[in-house]
Amino acid sequence: xxxxxxxxxxxxxxxxxxxxxxxxxxxxxxxxxxxxxxxxxxxxxxxxxxxxxxxxxxxxxxxxxxxxxxxxxxxxxxxxxxxxxxxxxxxxxxxxxxxxxxxxxxxxxxxxxxxxxxxxxxxxxxxxxxxxxxxxxxxxxxxxxxxxxxxxxxxxxxxxxxxxxxxxxxxxxxxxxxxxxxxxxxxxx
Amino acid sequence: xxxxxxxxxxxxxxxxxxxxxxxxxxxxxxxxxxxxxxxxxxxxxxxxxxxxxxxxxxxxxxxxxxxxxxxxxxxxxxxxxxxxxxxxxxxxxxxxxxxxxxxxxxxxxxxxxxxxxxxxxxxxxxxxxxxxxxxxxxxxxxxxxxxxxxxxxxxxxxxxxxxxxxxxxxxxxxxxxxxxxxxxxxxxx
DNA sequence: TCTGACTAGTCACATTCTTGAGTAGGGAGA
DNA sequence: TCTCCCTACTCAAGAATGTGACTAGTCAGA
Lengths: 189, 189
Description:
Chains A, B: It comes from Streptomyces purpureus. The structure is a homodimer of 189-residue chains. The first copy, chain A, has helices at residues 3-11, 18-24, 37-49, 73-84, 95-101, 109-137, 142-148, 153-188; strands spanning 16-17, 53-58, 66-71. Chain A has 189 residues and is mostly helical. The first copy, chain A, has 2 domains: 3-84, Winged helix-like DNA-binding domain superfamily/Winged helix DNA-binding domain (Arc Repressor Mutant, subunit A, Orthogonal Bundle); 95-188, no CATH class. In chain A, strands 1-3-2 form a 3-stranded antiparallel beta sheet. The radius of gyration of chain A is 21 Å and the shape is elongated. At the A-B interface, α1, α4, α5, α6 and α7 of A face α1, α4, α5, α6 and α7 of B. The structure holds a DNA duplex (30 and 30 nucleotides).
């Protein structure tokens, strides 16, 4: 039931089309929720029916028309209610971790490769998020921005995302190194 | 489709009943996958039908009987195949992060409280995982264990879990502090 | 000029996950 | 003795997620 709240939270700052929202769910919003475009379109439709967002058609010349959505007062109230309700614990679900768990009982070559790919992806995402953070805080330094910035919500979740990606990168690299070394050691026996 | 592989990976080391597995999915296995008992029982039944695990009935006197499962060769082969296939990217999904995203547009009091609760939970989980790690590596120190230990898969995923929980705790505490200070500052205006 | 990528969506189906309830005996503590 | 918690599982129903395919015009580069 929280996709709707993730959508509402993402729409707080600005109007977005479903398409733009889908992009946001790939970058900034992905730090706290992940969803495919189809889900977003469906959720926006539902939210509009329930009056939590309103959409307006924007006619475009050279591109397909689009619908821009914004949160209504009822939507804000719903978010308020959600914020006060108890949260479900977060959890990791990761194919790659499953593979690592099995690592010394199945072949490691493919897993090492995937760890290195993942590390590279995490590093790239880190840079992207670091750039996004710089952009969000403008000229101010972080401490000052967090004290007196207008809108810090997205910044805070990006911080979490950045920490996660860096941690993930480090772990992937370390594990890949460990598995590699073990492979060498065993070959020598 | 990866719950099945998480189950297989969790069963690699030992025989477990559905009930025991459910506990493992609350502690160690939770570092890479999360599932409710009902899902596990259902998955074990399916896996048995497909010949990837075998179960044997254990009759108990003072407690209900139970079925212990172990991975078959076909199951190991399936894991092997899975390890070689490309992984889906991991992602976070967290109610609390959604609330933080909305933080300066809705009331923060409840969110601050939840952040502190969550920090405490993450700290507790960290200690639990640290203890589990100590137990897994026995007398050896980490580096040595990772070089020459028999079975390091579970250790490696626990390391990830520990890093995640610590990171999460730190973030929660920091964000709670930031939101608190802003509340004070604004009250003064 | 052809190809592929981008904008902006929609539809239908399948799988997975969550919620809630129920069964049933044993042991521990008030 | 009564109540609650622990072991050990099962069933059903519904909500949430994911997969795959399809439409259709625009624009950039080979």
